[in-house]
């Protein structure tokens, strides 16, 4: 693991490939891309700035309507709303094995007012068989009083390399499939798709920890199969000055399909962490 040019890299010494890149460059929100799995580290599970959603970058965070300012789009992308800035700060290696790191960011209104202090703590580890776990502890601390509007999406978001011609499969802990999972409550969602040019299927199960506010989360599942456990779906979020909102998520990264029964076993193990 190493830091260079405001980015953190997790390297697989056996394959000689970078399997994860945490970006924290000035002028752009913190995000993870690429994220790779596979014996040779060739299967890329994230996509950066696709044509259909150019403001989405692999694994990222954001909200609409934070004190009437949007932190979902990148600055300059739309003119209909005020777009704030998310300024990456300290990027730190916490532990080499398993790879564990943190990144901070400041969320500023268009008028320069600091609204939220963001902290992300990540850990990457091996699971059963060839599974890989990617864990996130995420918090937002309000500086002044903050109101986050109700919206059908917002929070931690995953963008995988969806291609309409080959499709993708989505199912959740409630037994809902595809579009049925949109705006529905679930403890986890599994998303798997063919990875273009490689002839393999790969995916991830995104898990909402039982300690999270409002668990089980309500989920965004968009037409290009972006997935997002969205705390703002049920209603507005109000944070008093100094108050912190915290969430924990696990991504179980896998080649090939995982059965619902196997995912239930994995979720039960994750639910016990931090108990």
Descriptive account of the structure:
The chain is mainly beta. The chain has one domain: Beta-galactosidase, Chain A, domain 5. 5% of the residues lie in helices and 46% in strands. The protein is built from 1 helix and 20 strands. It has one helix spanning 260-272, and strands at 2-4, 7-12, 17-23, 31-37, 43-44, 59-62, 85-95, 100-108, 114-126, 132-142, 146-148, 155-158, 169-172, 185-186, 188-195, 200-208, 217-221, 227-229, 237-239, 244-255. It has an 8-stranded antiparallel sheet, covered by helices on one side. The model has no long low-confidence stretch (mean pLDDT 93).
Q: TL;DR of this structure?
A:
This protein is mainly beta and 275 residues long. It has one helix at 260-272; strands spanning 2-4, 7-12, 17-23, 31-37, 43-44, 59-62, 85-95, 100-108, 114-126, 132-142, 146-148, 155-158, 169-172, 185-186, 188-195, 200-208, 217-221, 227-229, 237-239, 244-255. The chain has one domain (51-272): Beta-galactosidase, Chain A, domain 5 (Distorted Sandwich).
Q: What is the overall silhouette?
A: globular
Quaternary structure of the protein? single chain
* Separation, N- and C-terminal Cα atoms: 29 Å
Instruction: Describe the strand arrangement of the main beta sheet, using strand numbers.
Output: 7-8-9-10-20-16-15-13
CA gyration radius, whole angstroms: 18 Å
CATH third-level topology: Beta-galactosidase, Chain A, domain 5
What order do the SSEs take from the amino end to the carboxyl end, as H and E? EEEEEEEEEEEEEEEEEEEEH
Number of alpha- plus pi-helical segments:
1
Mean pLDDT over the residues: 93
